[in-house]
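Reminder: ligand-aware prediction takes two inputs, not one.
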Amino acid sequence: MNYSKKSLLLALPALGMLGSCNTAPKKEAVKENVKPNVVVIYLDDLGYGDVSAYGATELQTPNFDKLANGGVRFTSGHATSATCTPSRYGLLTGTYPWRNEKARILKGDAPLLIGTDQMTLPKMMSKAGYHTGVVGKWHLGLGDGNVDWNKRVTPGPNEVGFDYAYIMAATQDRVPTVYIDNGHVDGLDPNDPIQVDYRKNFEGEPTGKDNPEMLTMKWHHGHNNSIVNGIPRIGFMKGGEKAKWKDVDMADHFLAKAQAYVKEHKNEPFFLYYALQQPHVPRTPHPRFVGKSGMGPRGDVIVEADWCVGEFLKTLEQEGLMENTLIVFSSDNGPVLNDGYHDDAVEKLGDHIPAGPLRGGKYSLFQAGTRVPFIAYWKGHIQPKVSDAVICQMDLFGSLAQLVGSDIKTADSEPMLDVLMGKKDEGRKELVLEATSRTALRMGDWMLIPPYKGAAVNKWVNIELGNDKGYQLYNLKEDIGEKNNLADSNPEKLKEMIERYTVLRGKAPQKVKKLELH
Ligand code: NG6
Ligand code: CA
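Here is what comes back for the chain with calcium ion:
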């Protein structure tokens, strides 16, 4: 069904036609508002079990829940990958990230990963008549590999389909720690130019490694380069003092930009990708959220993100856009506790289980790596329901193309608008999932993890990665926690899935003789 043709609303702008005879009629005298707005709210490292509507009992997320309980709450919604960059690549290009060798966790000065000639979700929406915007975390590279941060940083989001882009380049723990407004570092003083380097420090500049006395947050692994706001980061940076973000204000800052975007574009169809930075490290709740979860900063920033979503929804309501806006809510990968800083995430966890019933977490081929909260909400158009259909963020491309009446397709995105809208329960038949360049296959209720060398557990983050020297086969319907490996007891299913995996990946799984210890 093409929803864009359903509701034709012609509105005469107030008084625009009533001017004196001498006043020429305004160019846009008649406005068409025929297409629903689309907002993708995307969290960073939010786990399947981090949302109360998904079963969290120790943490309350009333605003995430409002979407989950008032929309389609998917129990098998997947990111393409268990880390950020590839997942965002899958979401925005509608193609599997493992097709692009470079789709791995990027440094803050990495070149733009998406080709400017490549089809993207915002380009497709743009061609369908939408204004397109991104606010928040980017982490898909910028420039051509040799960026001068003191000039317009290009190519970037504007060159791959976003009319408006207010972003941080990579992650909150990576330099440059500045906001970028349509390619320009926001608030940059030309007399204090920014320099960024990921290989070596700038002479005389303090680092987390050498200047522990300057730190307000201690690093655990990695994260011992330049110090900004007392927090040691990944990568070295010099200059740009006035432009540096204040970590505790970041949530409010991005929220205000997302709200302003909505207000500015409420009279035209818009597509907004609102990419929050929480609960990725460094976890820096604004003081008014400190202590609110009883779980330390990780819980507090989830409460903060929930509040941001609530405020954002209020803006849609105030502007009268709720019935005309489809909201998709999800996360780029699964949860992690200690991701490189001493921030009490482990110590204050209590009874909370960020992965819910799933095994693994961020970086893992087990379910918790990629199976994340995934919600579609549209007041008056989507009826509340829980859907067990398998759906992937990559499928938003095809599904939104159906919504806006575009016939543009990508290699891997499946058009699933009826599934997204809760009208159909059959989702994807098969889905290749990725975690740090390893892949596995989900087919219906079945999960195949091929043999991989490498540690079974990443000892730094204390997460089971899914590596084993033999095949792993799980029936997710009966064994959501992937505890019973059925590879030996169900050789037919194993064979069928290995064959399918080989076709989809274009290569057979590797053989592994021995597992590495760490
Ligand atoms: C890792 C970082 C981790 C996080 C991750 C990216 C170290 C030791 N660890 O390399 O802290 O930044 O990259 O996370 O540096 S993601 O969600 O953006 O993929
Ligand atoms: Ca992430």
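Confidence is low (pLDDT under 50) at residues 1-33. The two ends are 51 Å apart (CA to CA). We will return to this case in the review session.
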